[in-house]
Specification:
Layout (H helix, E strand, L loop, with lengths): L9 H7 L11 H6 L7 E5 L5 H8 L3 E6 L2 H13 L4 E5 L11 E7 L9 H11 E16 H6 L8 H7 L4 E15 L5 E12 L3
Parallel strand pairs: 1-2, 1-4, 2-3, 4-5
Antiparallel strand pairs: 5-7, 6-7
Length: 205
């Protein structure tokens, strides 16, 4: 399989989308996180249309959604306003700028592989930004499958061992892996599948 020629332009994808690109409900691991942290500040990295942010805001959390696309952040905030939901949105490229603040829950789904060689440093920083007793929850594509073969020269695809070692000083509440169909297609429009890891960990203390 050849390497991928170019990245998906998410700003363009959100501008031309007639409907919603993503599943219109919060991820399962976001729902699980609320069982361990009952209130506080939530950071959603790569928030997309904001369904996880909406979920947390509806439950009274102080939610902030970050996404590379200005278009989707505006859509998220406009929709939140229609439902009188109090949440914040910020257009930011996490590969080029750091995230500030301290949080009780940090979630991110299908984004962290784009950090490339900065992945390990970024995760260490997120762990430091998580308050004691807080949760990190994320899905990341792993080192097996079509996406890995196409983009392993540029993106970061961790092994199961690496992820578990990264959180060996935390309590790993839930961990799973599955061969997953990707939203993005190959250069010739072919359907892609890849191993995906799902991790939910709690900071001890």
């Amino acid at each position: 399989m050849k390497t991928r020629k170019e990245d998906v332009d998410w700003e363009k994808e959100y501008k031309i989308a007639e409907g919603k690109l993503w599943e219109q409900k919060a991820h399962t691991y976001s729902r699980l996180a609320t069982g361990y942290v009952k209130n506080g500040k939530v950071l959603d990295i790569g928030s997309g249309e904001g369904y996880d942010c909406f979920y947390f805001a509806q439950k009274g959390y102080d939610a902030l959604g970050i996404d590379i696309s200005k278009t989707v952040i505006k859509k998220m905030l406009d929709r939140a306003g229609k439902y009188s939901l109090k949440l914040k949105g910020l257009a930011k490229d996490i590969t080029k700028s750091k995230i500030g603040g301290k949080y009780n829950i940090i979630v991110s789904y299908g984004v962290f592989q784009f950090l490339g060689s900065n992945f390990l440093e970024f995760i260490d920083d997120l762990k430091n930004k998580t308050l004691p007793g807080g949760i990190n929850s994320f899905y990341i594509f792993g080192n097996k499958g079509d996406f890995y073969k196409l983009a392993k020269h540029r993106f970061y695809f961790p092994s199961e061992k690496t992820l578990k070692e990264l959180y060996s000083d935390w309590k790993i509440v839930k961990f799973s892996k599955k061969n997953t169909k990707l939203l993005i297609r190959g250069d010739k429009g072919e359907v892609l599948h890849n191993l995906m890891f799902k991790l939910l960990a709690r900071k001890i203390g």
